[in-house]
Design brief:
about 260 residues
Length: about 260
């Protein structure tokens, strides 16, 4: 096993562990670390199978899938539209104005990823939790979904701003975990379609993504085991500090490029 393969396997073990403990974070942690050595599109392609399988696993264990589906349909549709837009932006040819102006698409993707990680880490550490009134959901849900989709298409990270939005709906613990699994599943499938249509998820990428499921699944099972044996608040604090540090690193790397 070469150094690169070992690094990728360890990344997925760590990302799966975070997912097992907190219910989210696999694509966030994996993309933050994989893009240290891989282009964003290549890293996103590796994430498809591990992210999809672990999200369906999380989705299937909740208590109230159909009511959540009915409530969140507008947001989920907007996620798909935003993912298509973000995937087009990242994969646009060099002569397109969006890409030719300034840095490359990959560099801009790293900056967006860094900002998303830093903002989410800071929000998590602050303990801030917003509230979305029921009357605001018809417009707030699609807005959060579209923004999440664009970030997912550009960076492969599905967590911002859908996770803070779902937390602001004041769902109970089990419903929140299931809603996150539903949103992440739709985002993953939408990203897989975008990457396939753009020619970035072919047989070789699919094979690597399937293999990445093994360390990710092992990490998730370890995380679930740890979740019952350590204070969740301590782990989440360390998790958000790590996200903030990784996000700052991505932004500094962009500034120094």
């Amino acid at each position: 096993m070469d150094t690169s393969t070992l690094f990728i396997a360890l990344v997925f073990v760590l990302a799966g562990l975070v997912k097992g403990v907190t219910g989210m974070g696999l694509p966030t942690v994996a993309m933050a670390l994989l893009t240290l050595t891989l282009p964003p599109l290549e890293a996103a392609a590796l994430l498809i199978v591990p992210s999809a399988v672990t999200n369906v696993w999380q989705l299937a264990t909740g208590p109230a899938l159909y009511p959540l589906w009915l409530r969140l349909r507008p947001m989920l549709a907007a996620v798909c539209v935003g993912t298509a837009a973000g995937g087009w932006l990242l994969s646009a040819p060099k002569e397109d104005a969006f890409v030719s102006a300034g840095a490359s698409a990959g560099a801009w993707a790293s900056l967006v990823l860094g900002l998303a990680l830093a903002v989410y880490g800071a929000l998590g550490l602050s303990g801030w939790r917003g509230r979305v009134a029921p009357r605001a959901e018809p417009w707030a849900g699609p807005l959060a979904g579209a923004a999440t989709g664009v970030l997912a298409g550009v960076t492969g990270v599905f967590v911002m701003p859908v996770a803070p939005y779902l937390q602001a709906l004041n769902l109970d613990k089990d419903d929140l975990v299931q809603a996150l699994g539903l949103a992440f599943t739709v985002s993953t499938l939408a990203l897989a379609v975008v990457l396939t249509c753009r020619g970035n998820w072919q047989a070789s990428a699919a094979g690597g993504s399937v293999l990445a499921l093994l360390p990710a699944g092992a990490g998730m099972m370890l995380g679930q085991w740890l979740r019952g044996r350590m204070p969740a608040a301590v782990f989440r604090r360390c998790f958000f500090i790590s996200l903030l540090a990784l996000g700052a690193h991505q932004c500094v790397r962009f500034a120094m490029a």
